[in-house]
Specification:
Length: about 500
């Protein structure tokens, strides 16, 4: 009996080993068929390594399961590969991870990918695939991660995808997909990321979206979705990113949305939303970015909106908002504040200068009034963009406005047009670091100071339609980066025009 057990065990060992060798050769054949359809391998990653001279488990991008000695992972991310996919990929029956991201693969996806029943991760993002998404992907019952972002897929998302009950990440953004989001979306109970942005999808967001209780990111921007924003989204109590910008959503913002305590990004810009911005927006305790621009909101800014200690980005431009700007009490992290193209009135509050991390401040095309003088710009050491054109402001340099701006050593954009600058341009303007300086139609008198030649970063300088006189400063010639110089509709004179025309960097000159 011992002899029998010995021979039986030996037989099983040999049979198992033979089977493993046969199966790994199946994987090898499938990968060689895949390699045969690659038309460009600029770094020689596969050409120099994928050879029968080496064990398939040692090939670049290939990993094997030690227990079964089968290929379980193929990761060829960012190798510059071009070609189409072989149907033989479907023979890699132990494959758990298939990642071809950031290459130039094209053609249609072979339906045989649906044979990979052990697959958990499928990432084909940033390639050139075309055609429809194969319904056979719905057979990948263990799939957790599906990323088809940035390709040329068209037609509809197959309904079979919504049967993938273990799916945690679904990203089909940046394609040409059409159709609607069906109520079946609510079956994906494990989903934490749903990204369908930058497609041609339309229709309503189904209320069944509320069944995806683990959802953290809902990214539907740049489509044609319409109707009201469903209040059922408020039941997604783990939601951190609600990104619905560039659609056709209408109506008001559901008040229940502001009960989502985890919400960090609320991006609703470029829709048809209307009504006042609700006071309840102040109930959000985690927001880092709020974008409501390019809608039809009216009324005043809720005071609580300017008292959010975590807020970094606030975009309210291109609406019908009015009234005065609330006092800023607690915005220590604010970097971007866009209030332009509204109907705001009154002074620009000095409290804005308490936001010491501010990079961009855009207040143009409103009806702000009052005098800008020695405001504490030294508090805004990181300011990059200061745009206040088309208001009713008086900029009084005798009170130190331009001098105070010299504290902003990172300032690139300074746009002041259609306000009043008194009494003239000071010599201290030469200490401003701007690349773009525009002060058209500001009623500026006097000469352009010679110190303009110290603005060594200037790319574009415009003073159209003022009351300037005297000579055009010869110091302009020292501005080696200057590309645009607009001084038209003034009373300037002098013989420096020829030298200006000889400046190599200058592409636009308007005198």
């Amino acid at each position: 009996s011992y002899l029998f057990l010995f021979w039986f065990s030996l037989y099983c060992f040999i049979a198992c080993t033979t089977s493993n060798i046969k199966n790994i050769r199946t994987d090898e054949s499938a990968l060689l068929a895949f390699k045969s359809l690659i038309t460009s391998d600029p770094y020689g990653m596969l050409a120099n390594n994928w050879s029968t001279s080496y064990s398939v488990c040692n090939w670049v991008g290939v990993s094997c399961d030690k227990k079964h000695n089968r290929v379980n992972s193929l990761n060829l991310t960012n190798m510059g590969l071009r070609g189409t996919l072989s149907p033989n990929l479907g023979n890699l029956s132990f494959l758990v991870k298939l990642v071809l991201s950031n290459n130039s693969f094209g053609g249609q996806l072979p339906k045989e990918i649906g044979w990979l029943r052990r697959l958990k991760v499928l990432s084909f993002d940033t390639n050139e695939f075309v055609g429809a998404i194969p319904p056979a992907l719905g057979d990948l019952s263990h799939l957790q991660h599906l990323d088809l972002n940035t390709n040329h897929f068209s037609s509809f998302i197959p309904q079979s995808i919504y049967n993938l009950s273990k799916l945690e990440h679904l990203d089909c953004g940046h394609n040409s997909l059409e159709g609607t989001i069906p109520p079946m979306i609510g079956r994906l109970h494990q989903l934490n990321n749903l990204s369908l942005n930058d497609n041609k999808m339309s229709g309503l967001i189904p209320k069944e979206i509320s069944n995806i209780s683990l959802l953290e990111t809902l990214y539907l921007s740049s489509n044609n979705f319409s109707g009201p924003i469903p209040e059922e989204i408020a039941y997604l109590d783990k939601l951190e990113f609600l990104i619905l910008l560039e659609n056709n959503f209408s109506g008001s913002i559901p008040l229940k949305l502001f009960n989502i305590s985890s919400l960090k990004y609320l991006l609703l810009e470029q829709n048809r939303l209307s009504g006042p911005i609700p006071e309840e927006i102040g109930y959000l305790n985690q927001p880092e970015a709020i974008a409501l621009s390019n809608n039809n909101f009216n009324g005043s800014i809720p005071f609580r909106l300017f008292n959010m200690s975590r807020l970094i980005f606030l975009y309210l431009e291109q609406n019908h908002l009015s009234g005065i700007i609330p006092f800023i009490t607690n915005l220590p992290r604010l970097q971007v504040l866009h209030l332009n193209n509204n109907n705001f009135v009154g002074n620009i509050p000095v409290s804005i200068f308490n936001a010491s991390k501010l990079l961009e401040l855009q207040l143009s095309y409103n009806s702000f009034s009052g005098t800008l003088s020695n405001h504490p710009f030294e508090n805004l050491k990181f300011l990059n963009t200061f745009i206040i054109d088309h208001n009713d402001l008086t900029i009084n340099d005798s009170l130190g406005f331009f001098t105070s701006l010299t504290s902003c050593r990172y300032l690139e954009y300074l746009l002041l047009s259609e306000n009043q600058i008194l009494p003239n341009l000071p010599r201290s303007i030469g200490n401003i670091t701007s690349e773009y300086f525009v002060a058209d139609s500001c009623g500026i008198d006097g000469n352009i100071p010679l110190e303009i030649g110290n603005m060594s970063n200037l790319l574009s300088f415009s003073l159209i339609g003022n009351n300037l006189n005297g000579p055009i400063p010869s110091t302009f010639k020292g501005l080696q980066k200057l590309q645009v110089l607009n001084l038209g509709y003034n009373g300037l004179q002098g013989s420096f025009i020829k030298e200006l025309c000889e400046m190599e960097s200058l592409s636009e000159l308007y005198l």
